[in-house]
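User: I'm curious what two different proteins look like when written out as structure tokens. Can you demonstrate?

Assistant: Sure. I'll show them one after the other, since each token string lines up with its own sequence. Here's the first protein:
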Amino acid sequence: MVFSKDSPIIESAPSTPLLSGTRGSNCSTSESDESPANSHRFTFPDFKNPFPDVPICSSYRSLAVLSGHIGSVSCLALCGEFILSASQGKDIIVWQQPDLKQFAKFGQGEGSVKALVTMGNKMFTAHQDSRIRVWKVSRRSENILRLVATLPTTKDYLGKFMKQSNYVQTRRNHRHLWIEHADSISCLAIYEGMIYSGSWDKTLKVWRVSDLKCLESIRAHDDAINGLVAHKSLVYSASADGKIKVWGKEDKSSHTLKGILEGHRDVSMNSVILCDDGRLVYGAGSDGCVMGWKRDMNLSSWKLVCEHKAHEMAVLCLCSVGEYVCSGSADKTIGIWKREVGGRVYSVGVIRGHEGPVKCLQASSHSVGGGFLLYSGSLDKSLRVWWVPKEESAEREESSPSQQIIEKKCHLVLN
């Protein structure tokens, strides 16, 4: 493994290249950082079932507890056979399945990592110091994640800092360039060559992946933005002002407000997800409620279809896989919910095990043993891997001799 001064990796176990010549199932692809004449497209390796021997085990089995972060786990992402996690201690860890060992650990900047997304051979991380950092996997130095840019870029700064009209008032007696965030960047979304960043400074910014240029800055909310998701030319932003706002654009125009999804009064919206190809929108409330809206057939308005008290304390994060919605809460539990056709949800189980609030969730879309894998990060500094059966599996009895043999196999896989 090759190290350079620009590659702040401090731990690795490079048995498998981080790049592969195949198309990853969980990540989009981009051009290689080799010669432009090279026609190969590189990304993280294709997903392989990390637990091929895990069949129908007893409900909500904990497969692993991963420790290594120096702070609370703040965000997660899945990319092929890799799990990416970041913490309030500014460290980022790449875990490789199926052994779930640390593949790489690195970090830079001031304050915690708030969000991360991947695209092809690049990773984008949002930080408490109001910057977005771009990391690239280099084919020339395999298994290296190298810091290649910080947003806004120096080029973007130089093109705007001399002109007074490029400055905006952010706080009393404070002015910043409109291309820079004035507070922590709390969330990121990526879609069709664009990166969207939401911040505690109440703004939503749009960046172009190809040249890392900031294209737009939108004064989006009356309070901090906590969550973002983008799909089919629409961007959904969830805010502490209790609203989820929908932003859209046509052709080369700027983003405009397309709709407002009202939550409960004086209740923060902490997260937002989309289901059913964007027809259903779910928001996580600080009052413990999960709310859902359905987009009409004309794609012009949204109707409230779900208002469910999911937890006793604030819902901090949401994720979805198939017909299931998962919610992580400050009460240290994870709720498993199944969606009905109209958008309502009903409980099929609760996962307990974390010793602190559950801050982030990701679910794999690949079926494993009649269920799916769920990854959770918590303020207890751990990342946990769970096997969640589909509803039919959850209702099975677990006392038969064959079931005992199955559970023994699970134990062997994990050890």
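Here's a second, unrelated protein for contrast:
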Amino acid sequence: MAKKAMIEREKKRALLVEKFAGKRAALKEIANDESKTMEERFTARLKLAKLPRNSSATRLHNRCQLTGRPHAYYRKFKISRIALRELGSNGQIPGMVKSSW
């Protein structure tokens, strides 16, 4: 089980990313637009740098919904391999059977 603080930090980052997504996209569009003047593009970059760092989508990390584990994460199920194996063994995931031979 991951630390509660790490799980809460990821939730906080996800909220910030959602909150500032529109603003970041607009500023990035201005900053990358070749038809704008150099000053306009530069001021857009400065405004982008003023936004909170945790509002950037690249700072998000996938974590297991059940345990908070950051490694071995299955995107399709949004859980880690360990939690997936447990749920599969208990028959809680439809169509998944633990193989044995």
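A detail about the second structure: The domain at 1-61 is CATH 1.10.287.1480 (Helix Hairpins).
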